[in-house]
Design goal:
The complex is a heterodimer. By secondary structure, chain A is an all-alpha fold. Helix content of chain A is 71%, strand content 0%. Chain B has a single domain, classed as MetI-like fold. Chain B is built from 13 helices and two strands; from the N terminus they run H-E-E-H-H-H-H-H-H-H-H-H-H-H-H. Classes of the chains: A mainly alpha, B mainly alpha.
């Protein structure tokens, strides 16, 4: 900055600065350094994608290929796309039901979170009320807990309520444990909207609900999308509570159902990987949609 | 891990100006926050209390409550011959996984913060283990390291690291080692992204000033960048501690075929007692101990990160 005010003669008196800029300046990196970064970037991407590449290749092998000793890296008998059709009838677990369970639990848990967390996020961002600090503290503590920590209690509670081994139990559990994150992120988005906008709408005679739905929601939708995607992905992948609470094979989500393949005499790995690919691709697409927000907004307050 | 990003405080506020807020009292607030309170009470606070209650009961294997047991279950927990080993494993597991995760993520975040063509694609590749189910990711490693048909084992033989395929998941120490690698692998994305967010808050002019003063890259990193990352590091470390501590699927899959409790952490041990021994009362007592540890970590989080400061 200050260098721009120096005239040429002064600048020529400061040669070390120039060379240093060349060595460390982010803007003046050489093509060679750029090439090096791209090469490292490619290696990093490869490392993080490798397990999923193994998954994809494995899902296209025949049963004898995937259990062959020693194994071949790539399928030699052609790509078995038919695995993606036959896997649904594998005897280990009723996969179509497991997929339906996973979808229903994740979708309804997400809807419930949205329904419950949005008004609370709006109200806490806009209004003061006695006990607000306690309420937000409760939300933060909940955010740090996971179903696994309370599974022993949740299991007994669901038995008591007579909803053990039902979708409803897992919908409630996933909703409750993801609620706080959704509330918190939406809270921050609502809080960033100038209050004057609300006041203008109120002067025009709009009630609180109208102000939230018609005025605020269109502005906070990136926060809502982020909350929805995180709740959905986390419910989609939940494992610990489902493992204990969902005892009927048909009710189990995929995360639990897949563990039944492991440790068998001759596991149908091609099917395990086929269904894994089917389950992973949608969530990766969802996460990719909010990639920008993963960097920016999520931890902003704490990181500042 | 099923690492949930933690957000603390609003990202952008409009200055320091205190907003004028209406206060209509608690009755006016209840319709808006009531449903949240109800869910938290029903699915978080009640089961926590019920778990503590059950830890003092005598519950049969078929699930029938046979009356009070006082502190018998806790006495059983603390005299359990498996407990020292399980606790030692838990400490090693958390310390090693979190340290490796944070160290690697610091380097990775630094790299992902530099401009280069294709950076967005690399960043997206790094997100994949975060989005994917931990069960499914772990399954690939379990298969890949199988001593007969495992493709990673074959690769290690082919490049000359191993003479013959090795049963990584058959023995306690190698299995724990593999589980640690998997846990680090799935924890890196969230951690690197949190640190990346922190790196973006490092002021450009501070870096430039350091450059002007003739500080080398190491000096700049340790005296300017790292202090700026303190907030992000605190979040990343504490969230990782809690996630790694509570992780079930990785150890359950990788060390699942090892008999006994030599490779268990507190969490996998609780689930063995709950599922295989069907001892709900003992599992509850163990869970209460586990819960107490979690509460200490949460308290540290609230105290160090101060997530409430802007709420």
């Amino acid at each position: 900055m200050s260098t721009t005010t120096l005239n040429d003669s002064e600048r020529s008196a400061l040669p070390p600065v120039k060379t240093r800029q060349k060595r460390y300046g982010a803007d003046q990196v050489s093509g060679r350094r750029m090439g090096l970064r791209m090469a490292i970037g490619a290696v990093v991407a490869l490392v993080f994608l490798l397990p999923y590449a193994i998954m994809l290749v494995g899902s296209l092998k025949t049963r004898s290929e995937i259990l062959a000793v020693p194994p071949a890296y790539f399928p030699t008998e052609g790509l078995q796309w038919s695995n993606y059709a036959t896997m649904w009838e594998t005897p280990e677990t009723p996969l179509p039901y497991n997929l339906i369970s996973t979808i229903i639990i994740a979708v309804f848990a997400t809807l419930l979170v949205l329904l419950v967390a949005t008004p609370a996020a709006y109200y806490t961002a806009r209004f003061r009320f006695p006990g607000k600090t306690v309420f937000l503290f409760l939300v933060i503590v909940t955010q740090m807990l996971q179903p696994a920590v309370l599974t022993a209690g949740l299991f007994r509670e669901m038995l008591l309520l007579g909803i053990n081994d039902t979708w409803l139990a897992m919908i409630l559990i996933n909703a409750a444990f993801n609620l706080s994150f959704a509330l918190w992120i939406m809270h921050s988005f609502f809080a960033a909207i100038p209050k004057e906008i609300d006041e203008a709408a109120q002067l025009d005679g709009a009630g609180k609900l109208t102000v939230m739905f018609r005025v605020n929601l269109p502005l906070v939708w990136p926060g809502i999308v982020t909350a929805v995607i995180f709740t959905f992905v986390s419910s989609w992948n939940e494992f610990a509570a489902s493992l204990v609470i969902m005892s009927t094979a048909e009710n189990q989500p995929l995360s639990v159902a897949l563990t039944k393949f492991i440790g068998q005499y001759a596991t149908s790995w091609q099917y395990v990987f086929g269904i894994s690919i089917v389950a992973i691709i949608p969530v990766i697409i969802l996460f990719a949609l909010i990639e920008k927000r993963l960097i920016g907004g999520l931890t902003a307050g704490a990181v500042k | 891990m099923s690492a949930q990003p933690v957000l603390a405080g609003p990202p952008a506020s409009h200055g320091r100006k205190r907003r004028r807020q209406n206060s209509d009292g608690l009755p006016a607030a209840l319709p808006w926050i009531g449903p949240v309170l109800l869910l938290i009470f029903a699915i978080v606070i009640f089961p926590a209390g019920f778990m503590i209650f059950n830890s003092t009961r005598d519950i049969s294997q078929s699930g029938i409550d046979q009356g009070t047991a006082g502190f018998v279950n806790f006495a059983e927990v603390f005299s359990d011959p498996n407990l020292p080993r399980v606790l030692l494993n838990t400490v090693v597991w958390v310390v090693v996984v979190v340290s490796l995760t944070v160290l690697i993520s610091l380097v990775l975040a630094q790299f992902l913060n530099k401009p280069f063509p294709g950076r967005t694609l690399v960043r997206m590749a790094v997100v994949v283990p975060w989005a994917a189910s931990v069960v499914m990711t772990t399954t690939v490693f379990y298969y890949g390291l199988d001593s007969n048909y495992g493709i990673m084992n074959t690769f290690l033989v082919d490049i000359g690291i191993l003479d013959s395929p090795y049963g990584f998941t058959k023995n306690v120490f190698p299995a724990l080692g593999v589980a640690i690698i998997v846990a680090v692998f799935v924890s890196i994305p969230f951690t690197a992204y949190t640190l990346l967010a922190g790196l973006q808050s490092v002021p450009e002019d501070a870096l430039e000033a350091a450059k002007m003063d003739g500080a080398g890259p190491f000096r700049t990193y340790f005296s300017i960048v790292l202090p700026q990352l303190r907030g992000a590091l605190a979040v990343a470390v504490l969230i990782n501690i809690i996630n790694v501590f509570n992780n079930l699927p990785i150890l359950r899959i990788i060390t699942g075929s090892i008999p006994g409790y030599q490779a268990d952490t507190l969490m996998t041990y609780i689930f063995k007692v709950l599922q295989f021994d069907r001892r709900v009362d003992l599992a509850s007592a163990l869970s209460v101990v586990n819960f107490a540890i979690v509460i200490v970590i949460v308290a540290a989080y609230v105290k160090i990160v101060k997530p409430m400061k802007e709420a």
